[in-house]
């Protein structure tokens, strides 16, 4: 489709490296990277020279063990790394802990995985590397043996699978990755997520997650203080994403007005209607469908209309993305009035770049969440435990088990301080303003909405020269609608950058730039514009 | 409360180390562990000698940098590790990537975190170490500075926070941790979770998670084949836990019968009733409350009754835990008929020990999930993309963003093969049978249910000598009700093991042993029984 004729994906060069791309092989990249690094770190990279190699289309993966049997580490001659000599092609997962004498093998295996990850991280931040090594689904299915077998694979196979997976992953940490919220990769957040995985526990009770439950308590209180609720009082929980947080908020609002709905269902209450902004997130409609309100009973209010009665009626649900603006003294006025809301969804995995997932629902009224959702499962929430049961927070949510999402936010907050988050958010808004100022009067660009964006969304059309001067408005619109998808597809083929596009109502496809990537600079914005023009000039 | 009088938590020794506990300080433990290890791995541990130190009650955390400024790595004299000389107490998160020249600092910092994690992992599997270093919530709040500040903390502080967090965490990998499903820590699963965090992306579209979307596709198909649906056809998704999977299944069942409910809500359909087993999970009631069915319309069927009409009526929702039995040729008959279900919730994070969270909902009918939940968000699910849109799976769920839960299951499956999971599951059932055989006729024990358990749940009362021969049945019951909570509290104080308890209906508190920990052995079962008797003999 997209590769036919005029709307091609960049002609003969599609998918090939361009001049400003990375060195042509991973090996070359690693060698270059190792030279850049001082001290012992360089030697870590030397073991990684075959990152992603042996994964060429149609060829079986090369199975050379990263360690040789000769008793050396398999690195180069000058290496002084401390890897123990293990032959992963002779080892299986059953040789690792809890196997007897599995300590050394386990540490060596995990260190090997970490070395792969460290190299990937350093590479991800390098502008000379691709954001994505794109392949169509059917191609990618053929490029590696992804099938699951009855028989076990060796640890060498497992390491090869790790390299292959990263080779074809999107580098979401890349400074030129703008595709969506969330972008960027915070190093302290990542460390925290590794620790969370290692702790491998569940948030339902204090007894299995004492520290994490306390950190959730401390952090939610701080977030409520920032919202402006007196003394940070209220309640809250971290949930698996903003859509679930929003649904939880709707569930609470319904229960607050009609507590009998919990036992007796929707047949016991009057027909309910939900008011929301016409620009609200689609999760409000999903929530209405799930809760039995029905999408037709979601009344969308024009965004620029003022209606105090509706503001009061509605249990105000803030957009999850904007919540982070509360941390910026310069921009927090944009959320004036949020302290009057009964519930706030705030997704630190968006503007604050906390690793996915991290979404908080904050609730003004204490006790409401517990009353709304509790079912008193007697095997979890025993009432005769020896500690303060208010720390068994699991019954406040619909979920039973709940993933630990708090530690990465807490550790990042500690590392940055509130002022660090503020600086990060302010910088994203500066970059958006820079983009807006750069293109608002530039030839070939049109803004989708009037005026300076209030947040880091900048929506615009790029009109290639061949379309720019068309007189037939309908014909022009028809052509323009196809521009963004083709440029986006070419971006992915070249792997140089990624930005999203969408239509909206009667507006044809436009670029929907959104900046949340702390690695991005003014030069990356310049690059984006140059790249759009380079990839779109023939359209 | 629990520490008063007769029902005390072990008298003067409460909280102290017992003879079979770990060396008395983390430093001593580390030294012992380092001696056990060969090769260069020992030197990794030497940097960790102060794991958790400086966290004593009331004292501020010790802030000695793990690296000194002298240009050495801070390890001992014979160390030949490759750590670069960095003074973390002079560094902040802003010195890490994406900072200019942040590569070396980032790798060194992350390596330091990994060293902490590796030491924690090895320690967790050591039976000589405590399962938990328990403190009451108010104590734990005082034991460290957990508060969030405006100002940033140094990277040294961040490392100290990591150590403190792990010091007070539950060692869920410990061979004697039986508190709940999930227990154990799989090393390949952990490696996969670290990689997932590093890739930091979202499952909503193929364009941002190409490999993970394909792996979800491959794995769900394999799971449907195992269920027994023809050619593995059908649909499915990984969701944040079994409770959400169950709610999704109820949502689908409702939509299947009354598709108008999506737009028109519950007022457009007849009053609905949900049938379930009296022993079903409480998430069925939570789902009924959320969906507007109401908990009173959940009809619980006695577990031993047979009623074909209800089996047919009900869109059979299997218990999420049992799903894994399908992988065992020896035990799969216990789920005979599952292939007739329209949806199956299967939680690999339970019996299969995949790190939390990992829950799959599998659905027989293709297209139903999409029709039920899709809202066509135009900024995510553009219809004019250049690849096959069936791989944009995000609109099948209520969630918008969706955490990547697939990679750890896929990589573990690859590492073990289907036969490896089978062996792991069979072993847990063997251990349960061993426990059952050991206590069914043992003096002082009574089984809660008749006959051999079909799964790894073994429910029993322990009657201490002082209660064993009481003649007044009501008095005996009253006393017995208090036994399990006190023994459990003492287990936590001593930190030797953890097992759950609960009452059920008119049955007073009993131990609810559940075995899913691949690290557990017959000797650990013996230890549990000895420990119950040791801690309960004076009651």
UniProtKB/TrEMBL annotation, chains A, B:
Q: How does it sit in the membrane?
A: Peripheral membrane protein; Lipid-anchor
Superkingdom of this protein's organism: Eukaryota
Recorded hits in InterPro entries, A to Z, give: PyrdxlP-dep_de-COase, PyrdxlP-dep_Trfase, PyrdxlP-dep_Trfase_major, PyrdxlP-dep_Trfase_small, Pyridoxal-P_BS
SUPFAM superfamilies noted in UniProt: PLP-dependent transferases (SSF53383)
Q: Which GO terms describe its cellular component?
A: cytoplasmic vesicle; cytosol; Golgi membrane; presynaptic membrane
Question: In which compartments does the protein localize?
Answer: Cytoplasm, Cytosol; Cytoplasmic vesicle; Golgi apparatus membrane; Presynaptic cell membrane
List GO molecular-function terms, semicolon-separated: glutamate decarboxylase activity; pyridoxal phosphate binding
PTM annotation (N6-(pyridoxal phosphate)lysine): residues = 350
Q: Which UniProt keywords apply?
A: Catecholamine biosynthesis, Cell membrane, Cell projection, Cytoplasm, Cytoplasmic vesicle, Decarboxylase, Golgi apparatus, Lipoprotein, Lyase, Membrane, Neurotransmitter biosynthesis, Palmitate, Phosphoprotein, Pyridoxal phosphate, Synapse
Name a single GO biological process.
Answer: gamma-aminobutyrate shunt
Per the UniProt entry, the Enzyme Commission number(s) are: 4.1.1.15
Q: What is its EC class?
A: lyase
Cofactor(s), names only, from the UniProt record:
pyridoxal 5'-phosphate
Q: Which PANTHER family match?
A: GLUTAMATE DECARBOXYLASE 2, GLUTAMATE DECARBOXYLASE-RELATED
Q: Which family does it belong to?
A: Belongs to the group II decarboxylase family.
Q: What does this protein do?
A: Catalyzes the production of GABA.
Record text on subunit structure and interactions? Homodimer.
Q: What is this protein called?
A: Glutamate decarboxylase 2
Provenance organism: Stegastes partitus
Which gene produces this protein?
gad2
């Amino acid at each position: 489709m997209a590769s036919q004729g005029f709307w091609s994906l960049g002609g003969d060069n599609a998918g090939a490296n361009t001049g400003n791309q990375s060195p042509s092989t991973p090996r070359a990249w690693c060698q270059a990277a190792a030279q850049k690094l001082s001290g012992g770190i360089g030697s870590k990279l030397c073991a990684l020279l075959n990152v992603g190699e042996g994964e060429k289309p149609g060829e079986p993966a090369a199975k050379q063990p990263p360690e040789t049997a000769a008793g050396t580490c398999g690195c180069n001659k000058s290496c002084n790394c401390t890897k123990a000599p293990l032959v992963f092609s002779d080892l299986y997962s059953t040789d690792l802990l809890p196997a007897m004498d599995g300590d050394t093998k386990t540490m060596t295996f995990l260190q090997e995985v970490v070395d792969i990850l460290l190299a990937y991280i350093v590479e991800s931040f390098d502008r000379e590397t691709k954001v994505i090594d794109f392949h169509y689904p059917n191609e990618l299915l053929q490029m590696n043996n992804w099938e699951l077998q009855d028989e076990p694979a060796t640890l060498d196979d497992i390491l090869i699978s790790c390299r292959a997976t990263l080779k074809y992953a999107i580098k979401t940490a890349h400074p030129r990755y703008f595709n969506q919220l969330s972008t960027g990769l915070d190093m302290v957040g990542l460390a925290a997520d590794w620790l969370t995985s290692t702790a491998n526990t569940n948030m339902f009770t204090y007894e299995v997650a004492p520290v994490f439950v306390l950190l959730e308590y401390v952090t939610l209180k701080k977030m409520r203080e920032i919202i402006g609720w007196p003394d940070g009082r209220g309640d809250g929980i971290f949930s698996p994403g903003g859509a679930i947080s929003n649904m939880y908020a709707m569930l609470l609002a319904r229960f607050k007005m009609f507590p009998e709905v919990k036992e007796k269902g929707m047949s016991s209450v009057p027909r309910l209607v939900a008011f929301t902004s016409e620009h609200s997130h689609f999760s409000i409609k999903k929530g209405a469908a799930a809760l039995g309100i029905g999408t037709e009973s979601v009344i969308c209010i024009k965004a620029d209309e003022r209606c105090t009665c509706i503001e009061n009626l509605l249990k105000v649900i803030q957009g999850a993305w904007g919540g982070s603006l509360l941390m910026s003294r310069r921009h927090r006025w944009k959320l004036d009035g949020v302290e009057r809301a009964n519930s706030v969804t705030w997704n630190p995995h968006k503007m604050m770049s906390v690793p996915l997932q991290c979404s908080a629902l904050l609730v003004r009224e204490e006790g409401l969440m517990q009353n709304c959702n509790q079912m008193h499962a007697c095997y979890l929430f025993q009432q005769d435990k020896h500690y303060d049961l208010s720390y068994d927070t699991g019954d406040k949510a619909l979920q039973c088990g709940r993933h630990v999402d708090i530690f990465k936010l807490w550790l990042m907050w500690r590392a940055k301080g509130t002022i660090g988050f503020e600086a990060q958010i302010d910088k994203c808004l500066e970059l958006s303003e820079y983009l807006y100022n750069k293109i608002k009067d530039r030839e070939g660009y049109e803004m989708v909405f009037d005026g300076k964006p209030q947040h880091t969304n900048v929506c615009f059309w790029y009109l290639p020269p061949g379309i720019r001067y068309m007189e037939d408005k309908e014909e022009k619109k028809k052509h323009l609608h196809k521009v963004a998808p083709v440029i986006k597809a070419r971006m992915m083929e070249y792997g140089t950058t990624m930005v999203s596009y969408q239509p909206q109502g009667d507006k044809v496809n436009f670029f929907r730039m959104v900046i949340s990537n702390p690695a991005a600079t003014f030069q990356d914005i310049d690059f984006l514009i140059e790249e759009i023009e380079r990839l779109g000039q023939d359209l």
